[in-house]
Amino acid sequence: MGIVVQKYGGSSLGDAGRIKEVARRIVESKKAGYDVVVAVSAMGDTTDDLLDLAKGVSPLPPAREMDMLLTAGERISMALVAMAISDLGFTARSFTGSQAGVITDSAHGRAKIIDVTPGRISAAIADGHIVIVAGFQGVSQDTKEITTLGRGGTDTTAVALAAALGADYCEIFTDVDGVFTADPRIVPTARRLERVSYEEMLEMAASGAKILHLRCVEYARRYDMPVHVRSSFSHKEGTWITPEQPGEEAMEQAIIAGVAHDRSEAKITVVGVPDKVGEAARIFEALAATEVNIDMVVQNVSAAATGLTDISFTLPRADGQTAMSALARIQDEVGYDKLLYDDRIGKVSLIGAGMRSHPGITAKFFAALASAGVNIEMISTSEIRISVIVNEVQVDEAVRATHTAFELDAAEVEAVVYGGTGR
Amino acid sequence: MGIVVQKYGGSSLGDAGRIKEVARRIVESKKAGYDVVVAVSAMGDTTDDLLDLAKGVSPLPPAREMDMLLTAGERISMALVAMAISDLGFTARSFTGSQAGVITDSAHGRAKIIDVTPGRISAAIADGHIVIVAGFQGVSQDTKEITTLGRGGTDTTAVALAAALGADYCEIFTDVDGVFTADPRIVPTARRLERVSYEEMLEMAASGAKILHLRCVEYARRYDMPVHVRSSFSHKEGTWITPEQPGEEAMEQAIIAGVAHDRSEAKITVVGVPDKVGEAARIFEALAATEVNIDMVVQNVSAAATGLTDISFTLPRADGQTAMSALARIQDEVGYDKLLYDDRIGKVSLIGAGMRSHPGITAKFFAALASAGVNIEMISTSEIRISVIVNEVQVDEAVRATHTAFELDAAEVEAVVYGGTGR
User: Fold this and answer.
1) Which of A296, A311, A197, A299 is nearest to A245 (CA)?
2) B87-98 burial, b for 16+ CB within 10 Å, e for fewer?
3) Which of A186, A254, A401, B402 has its CA 20 to 30 Å from the CA of residue A14?
4) Are B76 and A50 in contact (CB under 8 A)?
5) Has residue A418 got a pLDDT over 70?
6) What is the DSSP string of B344-397?
7) Structure pTM?
8) Would you call B322 helix, strand, or coil by DSSP?
9) A108 touching chain B per CB within 8 A
């Protein structure tokens, strides 16, 4: 039999009891005949505790030392999981990201994996061991410094290991039952998806669904690695994320995969921009220099009488102040009138690979929003997604109305959410 | 100017406030013109907390994973110290034992340093950084596994780094003011020693003085590295541990360095051993096979009538059960009568390089014990030490009487003890 890679997040490793439960589940897969490699996050609140310690000694700690500090969290959890497995009569070997051959670039706090050289893992597997790897961390190629991968890092570690080891599949154990047609906290009748394509999952992640991080799904798609998202608190089947298979019936039937929402963005409007070649470029160059990620952009048709236009865009709320300052500095140069800042907005997105071949989806979406009395402020689309910006207080209503209009509601409530952020 | 290596223990790094205080002290040395390399232990109770976590998942965790777990403690403290230094406007780089080139054998939990290859440390020094190294840990030469050095490990790390870097000296910061002529908790008039030789410090460490671990002093002696033991809670001068210099007046004057005591041993007596060649060897071979460390050994003159003798020896109380079991297994083979076990004993030792050339020390020591009404159960001596085993309840009285008899008492109390074990 082949190799399976599993990932367990912080809420699945909350205390000694949970760690022993996770060990039993790992051993089940080993007994089933698989070679098992496991990526773990730090236990429960460990990362927050370490961040508090850092805050106690320095308001602005160096990123290199921050990575050194935070990587202690996975070191603790991986050793404990290995001990718990050994207590069940199986042998386990834990490895740091560096030992496991997770090679990254040098960007502390948000490093990207550039290679995985799993020689020690393969040797440990050959010796019959279960392998536990510290998620979220690696070692930089040039400087041999310890790095961390940023949010969702352990998911990415798991999929990268699965790809490098040629695993049969990668299981992401989390605190929810899988990927749902909408957030079950907003739509209690949301249905668990049995399957979803990489492309759909990417659009959902980018649209605010927090179940998997964007980079993890990108990695899975690049290496065609099947990912099974499921709960560590039950033995229920979760959601499989797999390549899109055009001929397959299940995929064909599902025109819409789900409705995602995101309350983390803000909107900035640059009012009264002279409608000349190069003005928009100057604005977005100034923003790019601050490394702020811009999401949606809308430019009004200019009023012929004034020769002025307005440019609106959305961005993470956390970057709002940075972007406003950068724009203020170029006001004289660009000659715009004023800036408007609005963080009382939300984004609602409809995602489905089927919308490519089914016209009328947009009309149906907008009609559903209109009947719910929801006003649309901005619109953006991709081949398999339609997103709208609405007033923040109308996000829940917009999600529910859309979910119902596309007949996604389940006959009965099956969603079980165990709290936590599913990081 | 040269390099100075400093060591800070867990009690010196108890919380954020202490860490900032330690950072200020490190920066003082840097400002004084030294290149500074620092070895740190885990913060306060971190190691105990990690041990509790391990106990929670497995009653008998594998040693390899235990080392992986415990080394997270120094990783946390070294990153925090580096951050606190950076907050003072200086740059620091923290390194794990492995990164610092601390190469050990493969004995998890009690590894010995076999080499130090401090290439990354030297490079960081050359770049102007203060270097923080995780104490107590290394990487095994053959298997590249993470190891720990056992009790007092960080002291040994500090001295080993000092030797490898050719440092001017090594400062061991702890929670007491230095090495005293006796434990100030028992003898309030004990005096701080300004200087003590490696040989005396070795005997004191072996005799129960907990201020420095044996292996650290051995390392310092082998490389002739001056060690300054001092308090991290004050700026007072501490005790210098240096080579014995025969011509030097201060050394000549101090006949006796101090009185040490040890309550961690037990005594086993093998009663009625046939007085034949090879019987004693068989007994101690059986003990050696269990890796129990034997300290003092006494064999009675055999009674001519019976041809039987008694053999008594002392050993760490923690190993008592192991030794008793090993001896019970060879009773038929050796043909001894019975075993007696006594853990109500204590060891009192008088240490001083001067006793080589001053006869009568033993007589004076025994007379002091006799006038205090202390019965001597066993005696052992080295060139610069006399140790006796007494009843545990008489240890304090024996230490005080000896301290006074050799005129070690200070005119006034100067000892300041800040609690903790000074590990």
Assistant:
1) A197
2) bbebebbbbbbb
3) A186
4) yes
5) no
6) -EEEEEEE-GGGGT-TTHHHHHHHHHHHTTPPP-EEEEETTEEEEEEEGGGHHH
7) 0.87
8) helix
9) no
Burial of A269 (0-12, 13-18, 19+ CB in 10 A): middle
Residues of chain B with pLDDT under 70: 245-254, 302-304, 413-423
Three-class secondary structure of residue A341 per DSSP: strand
* Token representation of residue A96: 């740091």
Report which secondary-structure segment, H or E, holds A137.
Answer: strand A137-140
For chains A and B, CB pairs below 8 A equal 114
Under 8 Å between Cβ of A311 and A269: yes
φ, ψ for residue A82 (rounded to 5)? -60, -40
Locate A330 and state its tokens: 């170029």
CB-based contacts of A187, cutoff 8 Å, min separation 6: A181, A259, A399, A400, A403, A409
Which of A65, A91, A121, A147 would you mutate first to test chain B, the one with the most B CBs within 10 A?
A: A65
- Shortest Cα distance, chain A CAs vs residue B176, angstroms: 25
Question: Are the Cβ atoms of B57 and A20 closer than 8 angstroms?
Answer: yes
Q: What is the mean pLDDT of chain A?
A: 91
Exposed, middle or buried: residue A300 (CB in 10 Å: 0-12, 13-18, 19+)? middle
CA neighbor of B76 nearest in space, from A47, A101, A302, A20: A47
Bridge partners, A308 (sequence order): A274, A303
Residue whose C-alpha is closest to residue A340's, from A360, A320, A363: A320
B56 touches chain A (CB under 8 A): yes
Q: Cα–Cα distances in Å, from A25 out to A21, A79, A241, A362? A: 6, 17, 21, 44
Residues 6+ apart with CB under 8 A from B190: B180, B181, B182, B183, B184, B258, B403, B408, B409, B410, B415
Q: Judge whether B60 is closer than 8 Å to chain A, CB to CB.
A: yes
Q: Does the distance separating the beta carbons of A58 and B78 come in below 8 Å?
A: no
Any CB–CB contact under 8 A between A65 and chain B?
yes
Strand partners, B115: B103
Cβ pair B315, B378 in contact under 8 A = no
Write out the E strands in B135-264. Answer: 137-140, 146-148, 169-174, 195-197, 227-231, 239-242, 258-262
Per-residue tokens: A7: 């990932």
CB A6 within 8 A of CB A38: yes
Place of tokens 């190629």: A141
List of chain B residues whose C-beta atoms are within 8 Å of the C-beta of residue A92: 65
Task: Indicate the residue of A15, A20, A76 with minimum beta-carbon distance to B50.
Answer: A76
Tell me how crowded residue B55 is: count the other CB atoms within 10 A of its CB. 13
Q: Which residue ranges form the domains of chain B, and what is each CATH number? A: 3-175 (3.40.1160.10)
- B88 and chain A: CB distance < 8 Å anywhere? no
Which residue type, as a one-letter code, is found at position A131?
A: V
Query: How far is residue A276 CA from its own chain's centroid?
Result: 38
Judge whether B59 is closer than 8 Å to chain A, CB to CB: yes
pLDDT at B237: 95
In whole angstroms, give the CA distance from residue A398 to residue A281.
Answer: 33
Residue of B nearest to A17 (CA): B57
Q: Which residues on chain B are in Cβ contact (under 8 Å) with A87?
A: 57-61
- Containing B248, the helix (H) or strand (E) segment is none
Vertex A270: Cα angle to A265 and A273 (nearest 5)? 155
